[in-house]
Design a protein that fits this description.
With 195 residues, the protein is α/β, with parallel strands linked by helices. The chain has one domain: Rossmann fold (3-Layer(aba) Sandwich), CATH 3.40.50. The protein is 47% helix and 19% strand. The protein is built from ten helices and eight strands. It has a six-stranded parallel β-sheet with strand order 4-3-8-7-5-6, sandwiched between helices. A hairpin with a 2-residue loop joins strand 1 and strand 2. Helix 3 packs across helix 8. The longest helix is centred in the first third of the chain and has 13 residues. It is globular. The structure holds uridine-5'-diphosphate. Uridine-5'-diphosphate (UDP) binds next to helix 10. This is Glycosyltransferase.
Length: 195
């Protein structure tokens, strides 16, 4: 898919179904390799003006989708291009619906208890396997421990919901240690799944 540049950040012109196809391929279609996915929203662009590590994390992502209409609008204004939306929640739900019991998911982030509840609900509703859960309130000196926990879990999909910047920089910095085929920063998604 073509890639645009929006305020010096990459943005892939890719629809939700195309995104699901690509991520399915990374998870089940060949040799296991680590990939990161960013779902771009306007808040990220604002934070990137003062946070070079956030910029680098987005620039190194394998896929950057438009999370919402704000990004779609910006791409239309700046590039006269219609970029389809592929929001984080729809990507996560789509992968779970598509793969069900063959999919192992690690739920990382949110306040203590939320990831467990999100995992229980997702397992009930979609039959997915829960590779593991961990809350999102740990210090930087615990990053390696958490990354190794995820690496040992055998997950195909890592949902990292620790807020903008923290979730993207964590995924990008630890990607080779974690080695999960699809790692996606997905903000409030665990809270929504937890209901
Ligand atoms: N969160 C987290 N660790 C943090 C900060 C936030 O796990 O250090 C979680 C928070 O509990 C919520 C999600 O990240 O489930 C998104 O948080 P918020 O809406 O504050 O972040 P934003 O995406 O707006 O930056």
């Amino acid at each position: 898919s073509p890639r645009l540049s929006l305020f010096d950040l990459p943005l892939d012109v890719i629809s939700l179904p195309q995104t699901l196809d690509r991520l399915s391929g990374w998870m089940f279609g060949g040799p296991r390799a680590a990939h990161t996915v960013v779902t771009l929203n306007p808040e990220f662009i604002v934070q990137c003006q003062t946070q070079p590590d956030f910029v680098r994390a987005i620039q190194s992502a394998d896929l950057v989708t438009a999370d919402g209409v704000g990004i779609v609008w910006a791409a239309r204004q700046l590039h006269q291009t219609e970029v389809p939306r592929a929001p984080g929640f729809d990507i996560v739900k789509g992968l779970m619906e598509r793969h069900g019991a063959e999919l192992r998911v690690f739920f990382l982030g949110s306040k203590p208890g939320v990831a467990e509840l999100a995992a229980q609900n997702a397992a009930r509703d979609h039959g997915i396997q829960v590779a593991g859960t961990h809350h999102g309130y740990f210090d930087l000196d615990e990053d390696q421990r958490v990354a190794e926990l995820v690496a040992a879990s055998g997950a195909h999909l890592l949902l990292t919901a620790m807020g903008a910047r923290r979730q993207e920089t964590f995924n990008q910095y630890w990607r080779q240690v974690i080695g999960v085929p699809v790692m996606i920063g997905c903000g409030g998604v665990l809270d929504v799944l937890a209901g």
